[in-house]
Amino acid sequence: MRKVSLIIQIACFLLIVFTSNIEKAAAETAAEPSRKLKIGILGPKTGEGSAEFGKYVFEGVAMAAREFNKAGGIQGKKVETSFVDNKGVMRETMQAAGKLIDDKVVAIIASPDGLSSFAPVSMANESGTIFMSAGSRRHIEKSGPYIFRNALPEEIATDETIKYCIEKLKYKRYAIITSMRDEESTMNAVSLYMRAIQKHKGEVVSQAYVHFDLSTKEAIAKLKKESGANIDAVVFTGNSKGAIEVLKELRRQGIKAPFVGSENLNAAEFLKAGGEATIGSVLYTSFTTLSDDPVTVKFIESYRNAKGKDPSPVVAASYDSFMLIAEAIKKAGSTEPSKVRTALTEIKGFRGVSGEISMSEDAQTIRTPFIILVEKGETSPELRLVK
Predict the structure, then answer these.
(1) ∠336-340-342 over CA atoms, to 5°?
(2) Roughly how many angstroms between the first and final C-alpha of the chain, as a whole number?
(3) On the CB side of 25, how many CA atoms lie within 13 Å of its CA?
């Protein structure tokens, strides 16, 4: 009898726990707030420093929303947008994020500047609001289940670029220069390049950190001494201004090796100021107007007609961010954040203006870089898309 009684007690306890868990799950599902068919956009449109990023994000999202809704929206309903200028200020950023969450937007698209993409992530995640940064290099997608990042993963970009350099251009010996003055330059980028060089059977013959313990002149002298000036290519992690300074010093000291770098160097000022010294450089980028993909070409033409200039990678990332979220809402058949989140993580092979996009399990977009080679032109260096 005692054994029977014990078994009955255990069974009752398990039934209570099971029932309690079902009730808890049901309560959590029922408690999920209804959301509007509305996407918020957060970034600096005014203020100092990063206002240009915010303007590009607003332009890209506005263009995507206009075209998406013109094509029929979601079951005939238009996806609304709410643009909020945080002026590049912390207090304004948090207030703006709170305002959008209180307005029950289904998602927030953030400018890639650090303040917009990083500061509100906890608030967005705790409220169950989809939060996607358009182009940030910060790995914010690791901050919670509702946090996403639409950017070209540097681990893929650096690997593909070095692979091209070694297999196609036969660059085997590399010097690496990191500009410690630039925010874009990180130790992470350096380690990724080194890993890619090792993986593809190349060799790092010298390494220097400019503006850390060495001047540009001293850093180049160090590279020259350590490598015996036998360098196939110089990997540079930094912005275009820093690149030009380093490139000119390399040439002054007789090193003619081309640059390998990121889309920071895919800028008119790099070609203009660097001149003939930029020829042979290999750059990767998340978006390029050199693409002949019909989806990208149509986007470029529409933007040019509206703005009279070429779209930047941030404009493209913002455009694609809206389209990815809209596609997830459509697939989910709901604006409930948990359902939209699931649909978003399941996106594979989406044709964006910046190429084919899939979403990884850790909420980061997966895509390959465009690789560009700087060549000699009739009057000045020109860019050619090689991959």
Answers:
(1) 120
(2) 77
(3) 6
Kindly write down the DSSP assignment for every residue of 232-293, as one continuous string.
SEEEEES-HHHHHHHHHHHHHTT--PPEEE-GGG-SHHHHHHHGGGGTT-EEEES--TT---
Give the Cα separation of 370 and 37 in Å (integer). 34
Give CA–CA dist 223/251, Å, rounded.
13
DSSP string across 250-264: HHHTT--PPEEE-GG
DSSP string across 5-54: HHHHHHHHHHHHHHHHHHHHHHHHHHHSPP--SEEEEEE-SSSSSSHHHH
- State residue 209's pLDDT score: 85
Phi and psi at residue 259, in whole multiples of 5°?
Answer: -85, 150
Tokens 């408690």 belong to residue? 31
Q: Which of 237, 227, 250, 249 is nearest to 174 (CA)?
A: 227
Q: Pairing between strand 282-285 and 107-110?
A: unpaired
- pTM, two decimals, is 0.87
| Distance from C-alpha of 156 to C-alpha of 16, rounded to nearest angstrom | 49
Beta bridge partners of 82: 40
pLDDT digits (tens, 9 = 90+) for 124-136: 999 999 999 998 8
